[in-house]
Amino acid sequence: xxxxxxxxxxxxxxxxxxxxxxxxxxxxxxxxxxxxxxxxxxxxxxxxxxxxxxxxxxxxxxxxxxxxxxxxxxxxxxxxxxxxxxxxxxxxxxxxxxxxxxxxxxxxxxxxxxxxxxxxxxxxxxxxxxxxxxxxxxxxxxxxxxxxxxxxxxxxxxxxxxxxxxxxxxxxxxxxxxxxxxxxxxxxxxxxxxxxxxxxxxxxxxxxxxxxxxxxxxxxxxxxxxxxxxxxxxxxxxxxxxxxxxxxxxxxxxxxxxxxxxxxxxxxxxxxxxxxxxxxxxxxxxxxxxxxxxxxxxxxxxxxxxxxxxxxxxxxxxxxxxxxxxxxxxxxxxxxxxxxxxxxxxxxxxxxxxxxxxxxxx
Length: 362
Hints:
With 362 residues, the chain is of the alpha+beta class. It has helices spanning 43-49, 103-110, 127-136, 152-155, 166-178, 184-205, 209-217, 228-245, 248-269, 272-290, 295-298, 301-315, and strands at residues 3-4, 7-16, 19-28, 53-54, 68-75, 81-84, 90-95, 112-120, 140-147, 340-345, 351-357. A hairpin with a 2-residue loop joins β2 (7-16) and β3. The model is unreliable at 33-40, 220-225 and 319-362 (pLDDT under 50).
């Protein structure tokens, strides 16, 4: 494992049913302001853009997938490894790797190997564990590629590619807010700037607001097991992008997710700033839905009121994934030994809705 600029590499050798499969993982050494939005952008985003597919699990490595000849991994006479992609893309270079025994022979025998491209690949004692975690978060893409020198004919002529990786941009902003590097208000302004960038590229490159928002909301971070605060910040920033795009339906959906994901953060940390921010979003969302002339829009009101109630309950420290009562203590709305009813008051709107939760611990 060695650094190539700020790119780290890891040589792998996987044995399956008696057959050895060589592999190479690459990724930025760590998160920083340029991992996702700087020159070159996220390696994961570049890999996906040029044909590699998102890897769901290390148990689903594409051993039998066809070789994408546009990509190649080349090891020169000095032993340095470089990764080349379509259209003249150089993903990594001068990687001085400690290869597992038999790696070179296995790659040369088949003329191919597995390439895994991670958003980040930070140094750790257990690098396979790091790769597993990045895969679990949905930020690793992979494919079978050629092993050998670049083939200009297969890779195609050099091309200029514009990458607007909105998901990585919001991930970076959320990270900086979490680490107190950037105030939330500043991050919200930068999130809104995504729409201005998209508009500047729309005429020539055909990037629609719908496509950008689809990237941000298709799976969000919920399926990626992100930390609670990161998920909350993601959805809060998505509301800013949606509003800048004038996408009312997307804004409402993201606003609801903002309120829902804020509750565990408030319950864990009693974070007043998070509560006030999410409560303001809930108030605005309720006002929009109550004033909606579209019946379909008002149908979402009960879910919003329930999320707002759970946010309020979180202030008292009660976890709200499925709101519970602590054993041996009377809940605020009833005894701990039986299901209890809570009337939710939402941001000054008075009694809003009534919900029932189990008092079962956990």
